[in-house]
């Protein structure tokens, strides 16, 4: 008894707690060997044999009652067991198994009472209720962001004296002193020079307006980057690369939290209003996913299951694109094609519902006052002709070239930012880029306006009453048939606009490379569309003038007679926008549907498809990765791309650890290790899980246990049960091993053991192993030979091997 008492005095878990364990390990260390475990502890079809036998247990000759000797602490769930550390990968198989068990239990209980039946119905309905809430919140926030960004963008140029909360357009709507031609000029709207020096004419007034424009831009950018840096570092960027990684099963705590949502919403308005070459469409996906993640905490079904939560996030991503482009169907397809890793049919229906509610909510708010969901909605009425497929394909080639160029240069700049001193000064970088952008943008009216307004201008199909320079054609006719305007010779305004648009194109191409990836919310959809829309409009005007002056050429005379409306430059702008966006993101189906929903015309699907496919082919020929996949690889996220084939003839034994000269694999034995032995292994290693074997000599595999579950279970036993000491035996078997008298109580941890870990043989081709990891979402699999444990392959090992085979740096995979 004296020996036992001495052992009890040493009952501290190395005086460590779970919190100390977390703080002593780096993010990368925590992930070294992620464990996968199918948790059968709650399954109805696995009878709890030990509980049934509790009354009949004997202690094998000891003097202490058996009820105190065998500690099975997992009869009731322990908080924390089965959860995951930050920067870790979830176990898809275990999560899906848990959800099936939960659903089976609710179904069985629903037959017992009316209350249980009501609970079952509410559980089934909770998913649709959650989708409704996500749609309402996403649409409301998108409307708030649109209205605020529109007002603050106009604030750089002036203010409405009739009400400072009105933007320029709304300020002049109700004015009695405005003409149709000069509808943007009204006494109620005053530029800063009018407010400061009481005049809007002359060089000094121009300098005052110039100065105020740059000053407001710098102020907005400074506020945005400061809020992100101080309150929510995860609010920067577009968020789509991280959301793709999270949806594949990775844990990034706080990335979809409430602080990130609040700061992202505020700073997105500031960043867009600053005039930087960025958009709000990508970040709106992040905002919608934050809404989805926060609302998941209201429902146990989604709060406690990481796999189910990712189904909700897939639907939230669809809602985000729905409000970004006013394209509910395109949003669902974007989530399916671009961001989701696991997308069952049920998620497809719920994504559609969430996208529908979000679009309806935004339409109810009507942020642009045009009864449309986006500023650049447009309708074309002129049919396209077969010959025009040639310029459409040319635009596709341009989009592919621009996409490949942008990805290479932007990734090179972002890598430089990460590896040099530049990354330590995000505020200075943002202010410098903002200053350069504002100084170069103000003199040109097409760079001074917001990018969404620019795209709207470029998409516009010129009418008789349009006062834009792009519509300054010479009119040599009296009537127009069917309300359509014939092709006309370009006037002075059109030629002036072409030069300005060319300069705008050059600025957008260059400045976007340095803007995307800075420490502020920054989307890439709108800048990419702007580049393509400018190129398309330039080509469209060129084709229009060519057809007007040379309508007798063989390529025109069969379908374009003199005085007919043959070419629509706005359509070329739209096709060019789709081509450039496709070249950067490598989207195809969802991109075409989004653009189709923007125009409301079915007959333009073929030009959009031709341009989107051409841009993808050209961009893929120059580099396989889209911008989001490239940023995932740059940041070292453990994302296993399902679209790429693994074609190398390596075997599992070539990738597994330990290698030939490495230390032996750290394992636990099923019934011969003490609490102290386990604590020593945990303190000396950083692995995320351990194989359990019959004995070190036999190396026969029993199962796999997660480090986190092991720590929490042992700590819980130390705190809640007297008698568990450092010399207590831990066993993972069904029944207690024979113990000599007067030994401390044993600790049974069988219920945290995965009894069916995924295993492969040492001669399994890596092609099959990679396929297993992709399709089952594994964290690791064990390698055996004739039932004997040889090693382990983790997701990180697979990613490193793929990188090595592709002649890339395998150490770029930072997390696991």
From TrEMBL:
GO terms for molecular function: antiporter activity; ATP binding; identical protein binding; voltage-gated chloride channel activity. Keywords: Antiport, ATP-binding, CBS domain, Cell membrane, Chloride, Endosome, Golgi apparatus, Ion transport, Membrane, Nucleotide-binding, Repeat, Transmembrane, Transmembrane helix, Transport, Ubl conjugation. GO terms for cellular component: apical part of cell; cytosol; early endosome; endosome membrane; Golgi membrane; plasma membrane; synaptic vesicle. InterPro entries: CBS_dom (IPR000644), CBS_dom_sf (IPR046342), Cl-channel_core (IPR014743), Cl_channel-5 (IPR002247), ClC (IPR001807). The chain crosses the membrane at residues 125-145, 210-235, 312-336, 386-407, 427-444, 497-517, 524-543, 571-596. Proton-coupled chloride transporter. Functions as antiport system and exchanges chloride ions against protons. Important for normal acidification of the endosome lumen. May play an important role in renal tubular function. The CLC channel family contains both chloride channels and proton-coupled anion transporters that exchange chloride or another anion for protons. The absence of conserved gating glutamate residues is typical for family members that function as channels. This is Chloride channel protein. It comes from Nannospalax galili.
């Amino acid at each position: 008894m004296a020996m036992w008492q001495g052992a009890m005095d040493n009952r501290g878990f190395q005086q460590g707690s779970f919190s100390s364990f977390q703080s002593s390990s780096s993010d990368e260390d925590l992930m070294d060997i992620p464990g996968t475990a199918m948790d059968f502890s709650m399954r109805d079809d696995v009878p709890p044999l030990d509980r049934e036998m509790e009354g009949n247990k004997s202690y094998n000759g000891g003097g202490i009652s058996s009820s105190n000797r065998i500690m099975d602490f997992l009869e009731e769930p322990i908080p924390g067991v089965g959860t995951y550390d930050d920067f870790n990968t979830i176990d898809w198989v275990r999560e899906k198994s848990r959800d099936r068990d939960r659903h089976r239990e609710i179904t069985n209980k629903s037959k017992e009472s009316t209350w249980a039946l009501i609970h079952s119905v509410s559980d089934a309905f909770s998913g649709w209720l959650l989708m409704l809430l996500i749609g309402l919140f996403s649409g409301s926030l998108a409307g708030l962001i649109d209205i605020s960004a529109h007002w603050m963008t106009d604030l750089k140029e002036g203010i409405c004296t009739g009400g400072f909360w009105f933007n320029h357009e709304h300020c002049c709507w109700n004015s009695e002193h405005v003409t149709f031609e000069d509808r943007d000029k009204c006494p109620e709207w005053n530029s800063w020079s009018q407010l400061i020096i009481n005049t809007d004419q002359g060089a000094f007034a121009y300098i005052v307006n110039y100065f105020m424009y740059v000053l407001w831009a710098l102020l907005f950018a400074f506020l945005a980057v400061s809020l992100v840096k101080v309150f929510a570092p995860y609010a920067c960027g577009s968020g789509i690369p991280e959301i793709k990684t999270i949806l594949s099963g990775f844990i990034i705590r706080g990335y979809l939290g409430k602080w990130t949502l609040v700061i992202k919403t505020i700073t997105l308005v500031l960043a867009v209003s600053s005039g930087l070459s960025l958009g709000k469409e990508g970040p709106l996906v992040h905002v919608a996913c934050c809404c989805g993640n926060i609302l998941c905490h209201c429902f146990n079904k989604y709060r406690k299951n990481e796999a189910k939560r990712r189904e909700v996030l897939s639907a939230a991503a669809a809602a985000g694109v729905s409000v970004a482009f006013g394209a509910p169907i395109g949003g669902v397809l974007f989530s399916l094609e671009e961001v989701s890793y696991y997308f069952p049919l049920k998620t497809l229906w719920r994504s559609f519902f969430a996208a529908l509610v979000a679009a309806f909510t935004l339409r109810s708010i009507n942020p642009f006052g045009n009864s449309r969901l986006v500023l650049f909605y447009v309708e074309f009425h002129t049919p396209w002709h077969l010959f025009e497929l040639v310029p459409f394909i040319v635009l596709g080639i341009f989009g592919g070239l621009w996409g490949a160029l942008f990805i290479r240069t932007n990734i090179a700049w972002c890598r430089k930012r990460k590896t040099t001193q530049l990354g330590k000064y995000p505020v200075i970088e943002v202010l410098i880029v903002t200053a350069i952008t504002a100084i170069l943008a103000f003199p040109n009216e097409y760079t001074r306006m917001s990018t969404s307004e620019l795209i709207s201008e470029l998409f516009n199909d010129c009418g008789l009453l349009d006062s834009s320079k792009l519509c300054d054609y010479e009119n040599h006719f009296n009537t127009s048939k069917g309300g359509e305007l014939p092709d006309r010779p370009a006037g002075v305004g059109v030629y002036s606009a072409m030069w300005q648009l060319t300069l705008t194109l050059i600025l957008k191409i260059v400045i976007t490379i340095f803007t995307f990836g800075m420490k502020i919310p920054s989307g890439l959809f709108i800048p990419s569309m702007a580049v393509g829309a400018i190129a398309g409009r330039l080509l469209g005007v060129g084709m229009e003038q060519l057809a007007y002056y040379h309508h007798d050429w063989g390529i025109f005379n069969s379908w374009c007679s003199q005085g007919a409306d043959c070419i629509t430059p706005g359509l070329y702008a739209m096709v060019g926008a789709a081509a450039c966006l496709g070249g950067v993101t490598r989207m195809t189906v969802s991109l075409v549907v989004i653009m189709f929903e923007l125009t409301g015309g079915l007959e333009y699907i073929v030009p959009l498809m031709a341009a989107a496919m051409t841009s993808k082919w050209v961009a893929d020929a120059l580099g396989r990765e889209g911008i989001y996949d490239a940023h995932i690889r740059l940041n070292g996220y453990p994302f296993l791309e399902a679209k790429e084939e693994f074609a190398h003839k390596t075997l599992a034994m070539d990738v597994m650890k330990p290698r030939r000269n490495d230390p032996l694999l750290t394992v636990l034995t099923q019934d011969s290790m003490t609490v102290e032995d386990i604590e020593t292994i945990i303190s000396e290693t950083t692995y995320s899980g351990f194989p359990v074997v019959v004995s070190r000599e036999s190396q026969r595999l029993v199962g796999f246990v997660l480090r986190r579950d092991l720590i929490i279970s042992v700590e819980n036993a130390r705190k809640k049960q007297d008698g568990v000491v450092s010399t207590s035996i831990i066993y993972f078997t069904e029944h207690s091993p024979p113990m000599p008298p007067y030994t401390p109580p044993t600790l049974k941890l069988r219920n945290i053991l995965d009894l069916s870990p995924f295993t492969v043989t040492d001669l399994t081709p890596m092609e099959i192993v990679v396929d297993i990891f992709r399709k089952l979402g594994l964290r690791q699999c064990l390698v055996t030979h004739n039932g004997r444990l040889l090693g382990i392959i983790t997701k990180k090992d697979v990613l490193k091997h793929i990188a090595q085979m592709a002649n890339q740096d395998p150490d770029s995979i930072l997390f696991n």
